[in-house]
Write a structure and sequence with these properties.
Elements (H helix, E strand, L loop, with lengths): L1 H21 L4 E4 L5 E5 L2 E7 L13 H14 L3 E6 L3 H12 L9 E7 L2 E5 L5 E5 L11 H7 L1 E2 H10 L4 E9 L5 E2 L17 E8 L10 H13 L7 E3 H15 L7 E5 L10 E3 L23 E9 L2 E5 L2 E6 L3 E6 L1 E9 L4 E9 L4 E7 L5
Parallel strand pairs: 3-4, 3-5, 5-9, 9-11, 15-21
Antiparallel strand pairs: 1-2, 6-7, 7-8, 10-13, 11-13, 12-14, 15-18, 16-17, 16-19, 19-20
Length: about 375
């Protein structure tokens, strides 16, 4: 009996060790040097829609549906999605608490919080503007200002939640219009490549419009987020979408499609410890483009013998010659081949690189072949 217990204990330790060794980041990226950047262990989303208002606000029939559609889009990218429909203040705060103090405590996780519902901005006594998101039981401030402030959730509370998150990256998306004073609206160009700097801590915010604007229930903002997640905002075509790229895309598209009625705001929290990174969505792989086969005239065979091909590329890529895999470049690949035509295929799925060229090698020749794929972006 003792031997059996010892065996089961050792078996448990073995599988525990095996699991710990096999656990890996679910979301990884490649830098411009070909290095693997570990981004996230798990990705979580909390999507909230408020359609049925009870205290003087007009209903928003599409808000719950919009939140569901955003949840579906994120789920298709591997996010674990929690959905909250028509919450009152207590239910909304409870959902935020559960989400942030569970999923939000994994240091290598990423979080998306999406809210579709009414937003409001009030000028405070000391002159600053304060933005609010409105749960279903918050009264209209024109009818009951004290009750509104008691039940609406102000941006200082949202900022406090953002600071309690331990996860590496958090992105807040508000399909509402209000003041975005808690975040820094200064712009930064999105990174050309995903890098270790991208993976530093960040809390990012995007709103559908400014303080004095109105968001229609038929949401342009939601539609453009979904298009962005489907690859439309991936301007450098690297298979990744950063929070900054998303903000720029929404600012450009929503302004146009709303006929300048909405001006999305985006930025990072005003904190030097939480504004260095950039949120990263790993998008679905685009289908490979089938290139037409071009038939070339037959050339006379050169004299029998051998030559050398010296092959390199930037960014890094795998190399196949005449259908045989020879390795990854750089470093320079030097191959001794018979004279004649040879098909060289460069490919890197992570960077969407796929190109085949044909070279003609003469006897005793040392031919240099170098491809730069960043010029094609």
């Amino acid at each position: 009996m003792k031997k059996r217990i010892l065996f089961l204990f050792l078996l448990f330790l073995f599988f525990s060790f095996l699991f710990s060794q096999q656990r890996s980041f679910k979301v990884v990226a490649k830098s411009n040097t070909g290095e693997t950047v570990n981004l996230y262990t798990d990705c979580y989303a909390l999507v909230i829609g408020v359609s049925d208002y009870q205290s003087g606000w007009p209903d928003l029939p599409n808000a719950v549906r919009d939140a569901d559609e955003i949840g579906d889009a994120l789920s298709s990218l591997g996010f674990i999605v929690t959905r909250v429909k028509d919450p009152n203040k207590q239910e909304l705060m409870g959902a935020l608490d559960d989400f942030i103090f569970n999923a939000g405590q994994g240091k290598d996780n990423c979080l998306v919080i999406f809210f579709a519902g009414h937003g409001h901005t009030e000028r405070l006594a000391y002159g600053d503007d304060m933005g609010y998101i409105v749960p279903k039981d918050a009264p209209n401030p024109d009818q009951d200002m004290s009750g509104f402030k008691q039940r609406a959730i102000d941006m200082q509370t949202v900022e406090a939640y953002a600071r309690r998150i331990e996860a590496k990256h958090a992105l807040f998306l508000f399909d509402s219009c209000f003041s975005g004073a808690i975040f820094n609206i200064s712009r930064a160009k999105p990174p050309v490549y995903i890098s270790y700097k991208t993976a530093r801590q960040v809390r990012q915010f995007i709103t559908a419009g400014g303080a004095d604007e109105t968001v229609p229930d038929n949401s342009i903002f939601k539609k453009q987020i979904i298009e962005a997640l489907q690859g439309e905002a991936d301007r450098n075509d690297d298979g990744y979408l950063t929070g900054t790229e998303l903000g720029e895309f929404l600012e450009e598209k929503v302004v146009v499609y709303s006929r300048e009625a909405q001006h999305p705001q985006y930025g990072k929290i005003r904190d030097p410890n939480l504004d260095k990174g950039d949120f990263v969505f790993k998008l679905k792989t685009k289908p490979a483009v089938v290139k037409p086969v071009i038939t070339k005239p037959v050339k006379p065979k050169p004299a029998a013998g051998y030559g050398y091909l010296l092959i390199s590329s930037y960014p890094p890529a795998k190399v196949e010659i005449d259908g045989k895999l020879y390795g990854v470049v750089p470093p320079i690949l030097e191959v001794n081949l018979p004279t004649g035509e040879h098909s060289i295929r460069f490919f890197n799925k992570d960077l969407n690189i796929e190109e085949t060229i044909v070279v003609d090698l003469s006897k005793g020749e040392r031919k240099r072949v170098h491809k730069r794929f960043d010029d094609n972006k």
